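Re: beginner question about structure tokens

> Can someone show what the tokenized structure looks like for a real chain? I only ever see the sequence side.

Sure, here's an example I had lying around. Input first:
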Amino acid sequence: MENTSVKRALNVCCFACIIYIGMFLSFPALVKGEDIQIPMLLPEDGRGTGKPVILKLKGKTYSRNGWFDQMVGAGRADPSEQFVISVLRKYKKGSLTDIRNLWMPDEQAKIVGYLTSAEHLAERQEYFRRMTRSRFLGKVHYGSYIIFVVQNEIEGYDPNVTNFTIKKIKNRFYLTNQLANDPVLSNVAVKFTKNLHPGIKNNSR
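And the corresponding structure tokens:
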């Protein structure tokens, strides 16, 4: 009888824990000034067995003030923002060399291999040329990296959101995929993006 009671108590506790974790993970990212608070489980093992924590990172949101053309025209873009703006410009009209040089030196060969087909490069550039307007939604600092969330309005397509991960090396910014397999970053990007623009399609860069 005692064992049955213990089992029931354990089952209730486990069920309550599952409900609590599910509710915890459903909370959106919270933005308080320059603090971005993101609920998640650590360690992130994909099985939901980690410990619920609030991850606090430095960042900002742009409200309606993040349109590229307005920021450039008013001289309001800082060096990291200027770099991301230049990324879209070069993906629209730049050469393969221009695009290659946007990336971290140890990633450039892979990028060139990906875009080595002239047809593929033309296809990508045509997609970027259809972008009629872009704006910053937010950015978050993640160690030595900065992740920008950018909304794009695209002719003939639904608006989407792209995450640009950049890193500064010797006073120069580069695009990077170094965090592509980082399980913590994937949660940060998804929750931060949903908080900024719920329901919009996300295409990480």
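Each token stands for a local structural state, so reading them left to right follows the chain. Strands lie at 30-32, 35-42, 51-61, 131-142, 145-154, 160-169, 172-175, 201-202.
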